[in-house]
Every structure is written in structure tokens, then in C-alpha cells.
Model the fold of this input.
Amino acid sequence: MAILVTPSTKLLVQGITGSFGARHTQLSLEYGTQVVAGVTPGKGGQLFEKKVPIFDTVAEAVKNTGATASAIFVPPPFAGDAVLEAIDAGLDLVVCITEGIPVNDMVKVKRAMDGRKTRLIGPNCPGVVTPGTGRDSLGGCRIGIAPGYIHKKGNIGVVSRSGTLTYEAVWQLTSRGVGQSTCVGIGGDPVNGTSHLDVIKMFNDDPETHGIIMIGEIGGSAEEEAAAWIKKNCRKPIAGFIAGATAPPGRRMGHAGAIVSGGKGTAAAKIAAFRDAGIGIAETPTVMAETLLKMM
Amino acid sequence: MNIHEFQAKQLLAQYGVAVPPGEVAVTADEARKIAERLFAGGEKVIVVKSQIHAGGRGKGTFKSGFKGGVKLCKSVDEVFQNAKAMLGNVLVTKQTGPEGRLVSKLLVAGAPPIKKEFYLAVLLDRASSRPLMMVSREGGVDIEEVAEKNPDAIVKETIDPAVGMMPYQARKLAAALGLSGDLINPAVKLFLGVYKTWWECDASMVEVNPLCIVEGNDGKETLSAVDAKVSIDDNALFRHKDIQAMRDLAEEAPLEIEASKHNLNYIKLDGNIACLVNGAGLAMATMDIIQHYGGKPANFLDVGGGASREQVTAAFKIILSDPNVKGILVNIFGGIMQCDTIATGIVAAVKETNLHLPLVIRLEGNNVALGKKILQESKLPLTSADTMADGAEKIVAAVKK
Done:
């Protein structure tokens, strides 16, 4: 079954005509993703790549195409508004790729999402991939910016705050002939829609997922919260890696959320929480797949 | 982005937070004139405070041997002498590192007698995705220590961003600090002002430490933000031109400023193995793996997902400007980018910068075979690595030679 998305998920893209959004929409189409609509205010009525209809609003796009998920490639000052528009249109899933959204905008968005059914992934994330059965995993659902060909359909779930480390883990699996159920990048911002724990719960309930790689990094306490739940509830083997053991305190390491402040959010504390929860620790990022496969 | 104490107090004052009267001086003469005005206005003691983006100023020592980056003064002449000793000199504190920071600005302010010290801060509570105000009866000390030794001394109030901080929440916190009588209303005004500063300036943190009960010039007790620290969310700076203007480039590492011009995310560290990586998570992990194999990373450097040849060249130049660097590890996962494009960029950059240090390159992803071939055929003295671990081991060994 995979989680969040399947190859039949109907996707719309907000910001489809921007250069970044257009490029990745094209790659998603080539991957086999059902991109059914685009949204760019003022460009309603046009076609993207001569086939995908563009609408002025998300509501119109949903009404006309039946899309249930959205990918957001809207510039940071307008991205919070774009997320809320997608939620207002009643989508099941919104994946916000945009990096650089002001934290307070996301604080408002999260507050406005209270009680709504929509799940937000991101922002500042590589997106979600459920690999397909074709060559280079074609025929799957790719929402976002991950390279599609590194995937392979299979039974490992991957969840991470970092894009490139997700690719690293996925590639290690695929190179060993091990496929993935779904790969989820939850994003590197301090306020995000979906946590490690949310995704772990979904993987735990997904019969197609047999093992999990969880990649975290310094900052916040989301990894510790996930570990506490895993210790009591998770029935599947998990390997974990935490990035940022050598990061100096008080400095943001690229991701807005990757910062050790007030002695909180250190790699050591997260690794200790992982160990306590029975999560296999990958001592280096090179052995993420190996660590999991040894446990299975 | 961090700003100076005097700038933080300017922002706070705009939102109605009581701060001691004061002005900024860049010369000892200016400090003297400010002191004259403050004494004439009824101040009995004046404090001269070095303005640098680092804590521990009071206990710091100047490289000249002069002790203390914060001085209390009872006369105009004392202000002048202290200002002269501080300005143009390098102050070393426990937060600056041994290189210290050049003091080029002073805050000259009134220093009324302090009756009691508290701690006050607003920050983002990541677990609830909401703002949080926290106060403590133990002020003027390191809050991390308080959190560790006496966590009950810290009282927190989560704020609903839909309505903002409500006066009742400010009253609760005031009561928790034991403030009563004539101090309640000033406390409420101050707390609400601090929250408003945080929210409207898009701050990542506002810290008032210490927040003090002071004896005003009229002999009455009142509240005052005696020291304050504000940092701003970089992502929100585009909508705060006035705060952008507060950026002090002298407080930032020159290489980090250069990197930001090329849209490179670079942070200088004190090791000797430089790394050049695409993606923040992978860049952190690369630093970690260098250390895992016994080396010390010289920097964090994320060239981003679509690094151009110009960016890679700029990145090499920045790395090579750090005299500590004895070797370089390039770690690229070419997901969307093609490894051959990246390899061509690296070869060009190595030639342009006339690199003579050990260079280990780990390429993975799209068109990796072609990428490796380009590196090999370049005839440059570089080493290829198959995995991150292989790359880290090779560069650590090369640097130890």
C-alpha cells in the first residue's frame, strides 16, 4: 500500500510556471506521476507542456480535476498563503518544497490548520516518493524534488529531515537490491507539518513496510519524541542516523531548524534516545542501509 | 541575524519596553558628551558597555590588558577614561574565542541601583509550534544552568498566535516572579511589549537578562530591561528593511560574508580538513564522518542543489582562504545534477585556484562513471573515493602525512 501517496494519487502543482516548479513537474511527469493540474494566479486557462491544465485557484483545480494532493513551489513570501489555500480546498496532502519561509508565517499556518484534515509535509523538504514498478522505479508517485531513478519499489520506509541524506540512504538500499515502500522528507525547518513520529506511525501501520530508516539532525526534540513512542509501540526494525555531532552550538547549519541552542537538541542526546528505544545506530552515514539490513 | 544590545533596546523601546536611558558612542569624546547629558538628567551612575555580538563582556579582558568590557562610572571623566581604554581594542570573553572581537561602539547608559534581577525571554517552542514566554526569578545568570539545576525556577507561558499574548498571561507571569502592587502594571506593559517585539520584528529570540527592579531617580521602584539580546529570523529579513540596516559586518567572519555573496552556506570551524558538499544534512554528516575517522572539519559548506561552476570555484577560493586548511574533501550526491557537470566544475575550479593541497572527491549519483572519468583524465593530483567513509579515511590519512 505504501503511505501518503500511491501511483494513482492525483497531484496538482502550485507554482507550476516558475522555473523550479516547472522543471520538477516535468521530472515528475516523466516518472509517471499523475500530475493533473497546475495553479498559477493569472495563468488560468493555459496548458503546462501542452497537456496539464493551469487554473487561477486551487479550488478550481480541485473541482475540475479531482486532485487530492498538492506540491508547492511558491516563493517564500507567498508560500504560507499557498499552503492555506490548499488546505481550504480540502486536499488530503500538501507537500511544501519552498525553502526560506519566515518562521512566524509557519506558526500562523500551523495554528490555522488546527482541526483540518489536511496533512502538510514540509516546508523546506525534498518531498515524498512512492517508487513504481518500472525500470528505475518509473510508474511511481514523485512529489517534490528527489531524483526518481535512485529508488526501487520495495519494503523499507525512509523518513528524514534532510534531502541529500535521504537520497544517500535510498541509494544505499537500492544499490543492495533493497527497495522502498515510501520515502518521506519532512523538511529542515523548525516548524513543519509532519514530524518523524507522524511518519513512523504510518510506517508502523503499513503492511508493505517491513523496516524503517529514520534520519535526524541536531535541533529541537522531534527525534527524541519519536524514539519514546517507538520504544513502547513500534513493531518494526528501525535504523537511525543523526547528523550534526560536530556542529558548533548556537550556529544554524544550513537548515533553519538545525541548531543546538541552550544546550538542547544535541546529536548526543538524540543518539542516546535512539539507543534507548532499540533503534540501530548507524555510526556513519555510509552504513545506514547496512545497519538496518543487519537487523532484519 | 544577531544585532547589538543597543539595537535590541531600540527595538524594545519602540514597543513600549522600559530600558535604561542611553546612547551609542563611537569615540571617547562622544561617550563623554552622552555621560554629561545623562548626569544632567539625574542619573547617578553610568555604565559603559562594549557592543559586540558575544556574551561574558563584563568578565572579559582586552588584549591591551585592560580588564572588563562593562564598567560602572560615577563621573564624566571615568566614563571618558573607560571609553578610551575600550574603543579600538580587542575584547576577549568566554564566548568570543581567543581571537576576541574589536570594540568599536559603546553603549553609554544610566545604571540605576538594582534591587532584584529576573530572567525573561520569548522564543519559539518547537514542540507546540507556538511562541513561548519564559521567566525566572533567577536573573542575571546563565539560564542554561538554571534549567539544569533548578528547573522549577523557570515559569513558561505558551502563546496562541491567533490572539497574541493576552494581558492575563502577563499577569500570571508577573505573579510568578512575585511582582505585586505598583509593579504589576509596568510588568504587564513590559511583558506584552517584549512579546510584540518578538512577533512583529520576526525575532527568533528576545532575551532580557537581567530584567530588573530598579530604583528610579525619583526613589520609586520600577522595572527596567537592563540587558537585552535579540536575534532575527533570517528568512523574514526581506520584510524588515530597518532591521536589515542593523547588520554589523564587522561581527561576522569575513569568509562567511564572502560565501553569502555567492549564495553559499559556509560556516568556519577550527579544524584543518575542509569540506564542500551539496545539501545541509549531507554537509553536517560529512563533518561528522571526518571526525569519526580522526580528522577535524575546517568548515560547514553547503553549495546547494544546483551549484554552478562559478559557485564551485568561489567555494574553493573561500576554503583556500582559511590558512588552517590542509586538505579538502568534496562530497557530492548528484541527484538531479549530473556528476559529469559537477566534475567539470571541480576540474575548472582546481585549475583556476592552482590547488596544491590533498583533494579527495566522492561523487555519487547521476552519470557517476562519466564524472569519475573526467576527474581521472584531468591529470590533476586528486583522489577518488567510492563512499563517504572511504573519502573521509583517505583525506584524514592524506592530511596526517
Remarks:
- The first helix of chain B runs from residue 5 to 14.
- Chain B has a mean pLDDT of 93.
